[in-house]
C-alpha cells in the first residue's frame, strides 16, 4: 500500500506521514509516497509497494508537467498492522482492512493526499470522505504456481504441503486436489520465495501481477488459467484514492484512470459486497471484456475446506450500470444457493 502526497505553492496539499518531520513549503510541486512494509523489514522487502508507487509516480509525471521536475516526488515508509503481524491468518487479526487502516487515517487527517492501493486489499466499504476515482490498467490476473519439485498442482504427490495465506486459493486447491495440504504462509513475495527454497513447503501460489511488477516472473513454474484458479476480487488492479472533496487530486487521478479496469473492479467489488466478503469467506471473481466487447463475469463462493463450492457466470453490456447490476445479481444468486447456515459456519 502506498500513499502519494502533492502540493503546490498556491494550493497547500502537503503534510507529512508520521515517520517524517513536519511539512516543508516548496515553490515546486511535491508528491510524497508512503509505503507499507513489514516491521523491521529492509528496503528490499518493500519492493512491491515501491513498484506500484513508482508506476503511479511515472504516470503522474508523464501526464502533468508540474510533477515532472527532479525531486518533485518523494516516497517514504508507513507500517500497517496487516504488514506487521505476519504469524497469524488475516482473519484472526481483523481482516484485510488492516492493510489500509493507517493509510486511510493519514488521508482523512490531511497527512497525505493520494493513497495507492492494491485493490484486492481494499475493503468494499471505503471510509466516508474518501473516493477511488482511478484504476491503473490491470495487470495479468492469473495466479502463478511455484515449486522446486513439480510443474503443476496436479503433479504434486498426495500429502504435499502448499503454503498460502489465501482462503480463496486454499478452497479451490482442496476442491480439486483433496489429497494436498494447505498451510498458512504469509509475508511479502521475497519472504515466501525464501521459505519455499528452504523447504518449508513443497509449493506456493502467488499473483502473477506482483511477480511481474517486481520483475521476478521467471520464478513462476507454471501459470494457472482462471478456470483452474479464479482470481481474487480486483486481483492485478491498482486503485488510487483521494479525499472526496479534493478537486485538485481528483483532476490528477482522473487523467490516469483506465476505464475498462475501473468498471471490471466495480463489478467484482459489488459481487463481494453482496456476499459481505471478509477474510473468513473464500470468494473469487473475474469480470473482463470478451472478444465481442461485452462483459463476461465468473464468480465463486466456497467453504475453506473446499467441500462446498458455488459458482456462477454472467454476460452483459460493458457499461458501469450494467456491470454493477451484474455483480449484485450474481452475489445474490450465490448467497441464496449457499443459504444462511453457510455463512454462520464461517464465523
Q: How would you characterize this protein structure?
A:
Belongs to the HMBS family. One of its GO terms (molecular function) is hydroxymethylbilane synthase activity. Helix content is 31%, strand content 22%. β12 and β13 form a beta hairpin. α9 (259-274) runs parallel beside α10. It has 347 residues and is an alpha+beta fold. It has eleven helices and 14 strands. The protein folds into three domains: 29-136 and 237-257, 3-Layer(aba) Sandwich (D-Maltodextrin-Binding Protein, domain 2); 143-223, Periplasmic binding protein-like II (D-Maltodextrin-Binding Protein, domain 2); 258-346, Double Stranded RNA Binding Domain (2-Layer Sandwich), CATH 3.30.160.40.
Rg of Cα set: 20 Å
The number of domains is 3
Output the helix-strand order: EEHEHHHEEEEHEHEHEEHHEEEHH
- Unreliable stretches (pLDDT < 50, length at least 5) are 6-29, 34-45, 82-97
How many angstroms does the end-to-end distance come to? Answer: 27 Å
CATH architecture grouping of the largest domain: 3-Layer(aba) Sandwich
CATH C-level category of the largest domain:
Alpha Beta
Secondary-structure topology with pairs:
Layout lengths: L1 E6 L22 E7 L10 H17 L9 E6 L2 H4 L5 H4 L7 H8 L5 E5 L11 E6 L7 E5 L13 E3 L3 H10 L4 E3 L5 H9 L5 E5 H6 L8 E3 L13 E6 L3 H8 L4 H16 L8 E7 L5 E8 L6 E8 L3 H19 L1 H5 L3
Parallel strand pairs: 2-3, 7-8, 7-9
Antiparallel strand pairs: 1-2, 1-4, 4-11, 5-11, 6-9, 6-10, 12-13, 13-14
Helix pairs in contact: 9-10
